[in-house]
Structures are given as structure tokens and as C-alpha cells.
Amino acid sequence: MAFEISLAGRTAVITGSNSGIGLGMAWEIARAGADVVLNSFSDRDEDHAIAEEIAKATGTNTRYIQADMSKGDQCRRLISDAGKCDILINNAGIQHVAPIPEFPVDKWDAIIAINMSSAFHTTAIALPMMREAGWGRIINVSSAHGLTASPFKAAYVAAKHGVVGLTKTTALETAQEPITANAICPGYVLTPIVEKQIPDTMREYNMTREEVIQNVMLKRQPSKEFATTEQLGGTAVFLCSDAAAQITGTTISVDGGWTAL
Ligand code: NAD
What we know:
Elements: E1 11-14, H1 20-31, E2 35-40, H2 45-58, E3 63-66, H3 72-82, E4 87-90, H4 105-133, E5 136-141, H5 154-173, E6 179-186, H6 192-195, H7 197-205, H8 209-217, H9 229-240, E7 251-254
Parallel strand pairs: 1-2, 1-4, 2-3, 4-5, 5-6, 6-7
Helix pairs in contact: 1-2, 1-9, 3-4, 4-5, 7-8
The protein binds nicotinamide-adenine-dinucleotide.
Residues 15-22, 40-41, 68-70, 91-94, 114-115, 141, 143, 186, 188-189, 191-194 line the site of nicotinamide-adenine-dinucleotide (NAD).
């Protein structure tokens, strides 16, 4: 049996997809033929323009729905408003770096809500829709920090490990159905969430931009290269393919060897 990857007729909802990895995944999933629902908390003309650009380039019915993933009711409303959700990609995420005694409580709460709890809320509404449709794929964007830890990233590491646990439970609850649930664990990818950390780290360590990238960020990434949003999009498309139908409840690292160390 030859495996072909066509996602025509499917609808994918990708949380936090107006930039970075989520946007890269949106492009690759739409190129494979699925209609995509893009999302973030903002409601700017440029958010809708990104969706129109993808729709035009790929011939899909790609659109943008505003919803704040820090709020459980808005997570649930996003999936209901999408109307159809064959592929759910929980990707929205934020970062904050501080030692535990100084870690701001509001940052802890926001990171747990956006990076972890949002995936519980969207999954709760999407699963019955997938069961009704008789097919589904859930892809949770965790991190190398869902499998290992770093100091000063308590909330992020806790949330990303939590997402891996949620993924395994989702997979067990759907194991005998044509639905899979997996987590993608990227290493460093040069997106706005990472770009924002560079100036502070340059100041903190008195380093140049290139020194921060090579000696701090890519220190634990043996390939010494960032993963790209296109590669992560390709991994998501693969997990939606028939070849991946028996891959469930696991993690796929796209981290240049980080977690092999
Ligand atoms: P990014 O900042 O470009 O993307 C984050 C996305 O989440 C944006 O679209 C943003 O608008 C959205 N978002 C933030 N708060 C939101 C909210 N309250 N409601 C809805 N959307 C919200 O960064 P990215 O690197 O593309 O991150 C995407 C995911 O990948 C995150 O979960 C991140 O933790 C994970 N990740 C990133 C890296 C990396 O190196 N860039 C590595 C591992 C994991």
C-alpha cells in the first residue's frame, strides 16, 4: 500500500498560529489540502490577512478566529465556532524566565493556562466532533522542555511536561478509535518567543548576538542549528497521514539531538 498525504476535506484548528511554529504548521497543513482555522488572542486586520494569504495560495478555506487561550471558555468557544475539527493542534504558548522564589504568580498562572490547560479545554470539545466524523488527529506542541528541564523556567517546564501527560491520557482514551494523540517536542526554533530572549541574554552575559545563539541557545542542541517552522509543519503533516495511524501516545523530538544527550 502506497501512502499519500492528502488532507483534502479535513479541517485543522491550530491555536496560537498567527506567528512562528503555529503559522509554519498552518502553511504545511494547508499545502496538504486541509482547511485551517488560525487563532490568537488579537483581532487585527493583519491576523485575518495572514489567513487570506494562505487561503489564496493553497486554495483552501482558511480563516482566522480570535480566542484567548488563557481563558477556558474561549478555548472551548474556538472549537465550537470552527464548526469542524478533524485535526487539533494545541500550539499557543508563552515563556517567562525567573528563579522560583521570584517567579511572578501571575506569570505562573498564565503559562499553566495557555501552555497546558488550553489543550485540555480544546480537546474536551474537539474529541466528540472527531468521534462524530470518525477520524481525528490531536497534536500537542510540547518542547524539549517537556522531556528535560532547565533552571529558571519552572512554569514552562511544568506545563510542557503536563502536556506530554495529557497527550498520553488522550491517546489511551481514544486507543481503539481512528483518532491519535501525540506531542511534538521541538528544540530551539528561531521564532518571536526565542528572538525576545536574545537582547536580555546579550546584556546578562555581555555577549554578542551570535555568541548568545551558539554558546547559550544552541549549547544543548548538538546539531548547532535551529529547527525550522517548515520542518515542524512537515512533522505535523506526517502525524496526520495514514502512515502515522498507529503512532499514538508518544512524543516526537525535533531538537537536533538535544534529548539524546
Ligand atoms: P511565537 O511567540 O511565535 O508563537 C506563540 C503563539 O501563541 C503566537 O501565535 C501567539 O499569538 C500565541 N499566543 C500567545 N498567547 C496566547 C493566548 N493567550 N491566546 C491565544 N494565542 C496566544 O512562538 P513559537 O516559538 O512559535 O511557539 C509556539 C509553540 O512552540 C509554543 O507552545 C512554544 O512553547 C513551543 N516551542 C517553541 C520553541 C522555540 O524554540 N521557538 C521550542 C519548543 C517549543
